[in-house]
């Protein structure tokens, strides 16, 4: 208990007591004063010591659990989670030593065996790639530019493409100039270049919890401290975000305001405005990862933060990987003016420039209007899958006892098993039945027994969606029943209170 003796809660502060306590315990964990597997004090004991209601402790512990800092063991108490400081696969492999898929997962890959239905990958199937159009435009570029297409390119990006992107962005209400655009070799490189330019060892970065695994990996590779703030169905928990900003003074705040990966949640307009207000108030640099706002099936307002950023606080990252061809490795940043030089230097030392050939072909793609047709085609394909998926979830998952809400677009659906169930185990059971799901634990910065999992429609054909969801619902029902039966024979439950 001595570690908790120094905790002082200010009853006169406008900040809730549970929030104060949450932050103090989180700090103890981040500073290494509370170690992995350390047990937190029993609720009543800590409440008595701090002179507060037990509900304050329950709420603080609940928030710590939601953020992945602690986990609950029924009948035993609340414990500090393991950190993901190692390769994620190392941690999962301790639990599932023979599972090669888990070994691959944290490298963004998954092995698909024959007859498997994969809801795990959010990458489009290659039959959707517009290869014929690309071939025609590629030849046109080669005839027109000859060897110039293969020389070193301007690091900031091929100028005519940047001009085309200014027009493209104006259609989504982002008014910018060619000098603010930086071409990158995919959004992942964008995150990396931004980190290289701004993040030093021990700097803090705030992310949503859960968040995109590739971003976690990049920030960790810079030695950054990652503070995660839970995302709710209408966007990040704003109150907690502001508290975390005040406390940690982050170098960057990394957000996905539209169809967030992995949850599929989108921010309300109010929350988007509030983020910009916070950026202004605390002089923040916000990184907006827009990997999917194009696929908005049932939502009119998919405004980007960049489109409402009047003070130049948002770095906008655009990926085309989900709607075009990921192997092209092409994306772009829209930068606030004040940071051009830093980003340009970081990009130059990463790969000098993005492929000039690909940039030239993509430029023609945009200028000839072929892009518009392609996007409409992708929207049609994905919307059909999205609608089938929704119907199947309603038909087969309602009885299973799992929790979900429907996104209004995008490719990902997010689910929670009932309390105490581990989606990593469900992943193993589903794979035995030839269904691939993505366990949610890979999207959290702390290792805990995540109850969540993601299903994506990107690489499942319509005919397989119903088969897959029906089978998966059976696996889930069996999985929950099996675990419940096991619990019947377990030690008697000891309540925490
Ligand atoms: C949220 C998010 N950002 C960035 C990326 C990386 O995209 P790219 O292929 O453009 O590097 C992905 C890929 O899945 C993603 O989901």
Automatic annotation (TrEMBL):
Alphabetically ordered keywords of this record: Aminotransferase, DNA-binding, Pyridoxal phosphate, Transcription, Transcription regulation, Transferase
Domain annotation HTH gntR-type: ranges: 15-83
Xref: InterPro entries: Aminotransferase_I/II_large, HTH_trans_reg/aminotransferase, PyrdxlP-dep_Trfase, PyrdxlP-dep_Trfase_major, PyrdxlP-dep_Trfase_small, Tscrpt_reg_HTH_GntR, WH-like_DNA-bd_sf, WH_DNA-bd_sf
Description of how the protein assembles with itself and partners: Homodimer.
SMART domains: HTH_GNTR
Domain of life: Bacteria
Membership in a protein family: In the C-terminal section; belongs to the class-I pyridoxal-phosphate-dependent aminotransferase family. Belongs to the class-I pyridoxal-phosphate-dependent aminotransferase family.
Listed cofactors: pyridoxal 5'-phosphate
PANTHER family registered for this protein in UniProt: HTH-TYPE TRANSCRIPTIONAL REGULATORY PROTEIN GABR (PTHR46577)
Protein name: GntR family transcriptional regulator
Parts forming coiled coils: none
Gene3D superfamilies assigned: Aspartate Aminotransferase, domain 1 (3.90.1150.10), Type I PLP-dependent aspartate aminotransferase-like (Major domain) (3.40.640.10), Winged helix-like DNA-binding domain superfamily/Winged helix DNA-binding domain (1.10.10.10)
Pfam families listed in its UniProt record: Aminotran_1_2, GntR
A GO molecular-function annotation: pyridoxal phosphate binding
Organism taxonomic ancestry: Bacteria, Bacillati, Bacillota, Clostridia, Peptostreptococcales
């Amino acid at each position: 208990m001595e570690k908790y003796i120094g905790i002082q809660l200010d009853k006169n502060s406008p900040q809730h007591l549970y929030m104060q306590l949450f932050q103090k315990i989180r700090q103890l964990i981040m500073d290494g004063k509370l170690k992995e597997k350390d047990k937190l004090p029993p609720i009543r004991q800590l409440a008595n010591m701090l002179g507060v209601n037990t509900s304050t402790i329950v709420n603080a512990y609940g928030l710590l659990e939601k953020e992945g800092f602690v986990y609950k063991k029924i009948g035993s108490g609340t414990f500090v989670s393991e950190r993901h400081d190692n390769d994620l696969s190392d941690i999962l492999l301790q639990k599932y030593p023979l599972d090669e898929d888990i070994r691959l997962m944290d490298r963004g890959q998954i092995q698909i065996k024959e007859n498997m239905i994969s809801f795990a990958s959010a990458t489009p199937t290659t039959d959707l790639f517009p290869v014929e159009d690309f071939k025609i435009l590629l030849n046109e570029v080669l005839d027109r530019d000859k060897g110039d297409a293969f020389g070193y390119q301007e690091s900031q990006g091929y100028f005519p493409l940047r001009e085309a992107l200014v027009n493209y962005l104006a259609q989504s209400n982002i008014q910018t100039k060619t000098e603010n655009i930086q071409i990158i070799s995919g959004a992942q490189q964008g995150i990396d270049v931004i980190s290289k330019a701004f993040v030093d060892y021990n700097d803090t970065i705030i992310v949503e919890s859960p968040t995109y695994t590739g971003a976690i990996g990049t920030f960790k590779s810079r030695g950054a401290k990652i503070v995660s703030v839970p995302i709710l169905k209408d966007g990040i928990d704003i109150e907690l975000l502001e508290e975390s900003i005040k406390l940690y003074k982050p170098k960057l705040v990394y957000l996905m305001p539209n169809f967030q990966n992995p949850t599929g949640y989108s921010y309300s307009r109010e929350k988007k405005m509030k983020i910009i207000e916070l950026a202004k108030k605390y002089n923040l640099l916000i990184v907006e990862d827009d990997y999917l706002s194009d696929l908005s099936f049932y939502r009119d307002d998919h405004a980007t933060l960049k489109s409402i950023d009047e003070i130049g606080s948002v770095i906008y990252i655009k990926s085309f990987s989900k709607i075009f061809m990921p192997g092209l490795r092409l994306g772009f940043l829209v930068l606030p003016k004040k940071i051009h030089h830093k980003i340009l230097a970081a990009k130059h030392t990463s790969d000098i420039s993005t492929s000039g050939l690909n940039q030239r072909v993509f430029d023609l793609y945009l200028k000839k209007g072929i892009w518009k047709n392609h996007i409409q085609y992708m929207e049609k394909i994905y919307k059909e899958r999205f609608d089938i998926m929704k119907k199947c979830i309603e038909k087969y998952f309602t009885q299973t006892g799992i929790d979900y809400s429907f996104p209004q677009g995008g490719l990902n659906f997010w689910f929670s098993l009932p309390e105490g169930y581990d989606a990593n185990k469900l992943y193993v059971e589903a794979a035995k039945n030839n269904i691939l799901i993505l366990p949610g634990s890979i999207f959290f910065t702390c290792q805990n027994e995540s109850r969540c999992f993601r299903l994506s429609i990107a690489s499942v054909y319509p005919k397989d969606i119903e088969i897959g969801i029906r089978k998966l619902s059976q696996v889930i029902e069996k999985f929950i029943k099996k675990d419940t039966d096991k619990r019947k024979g377990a030690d008697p439950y000891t309540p925490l209170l």
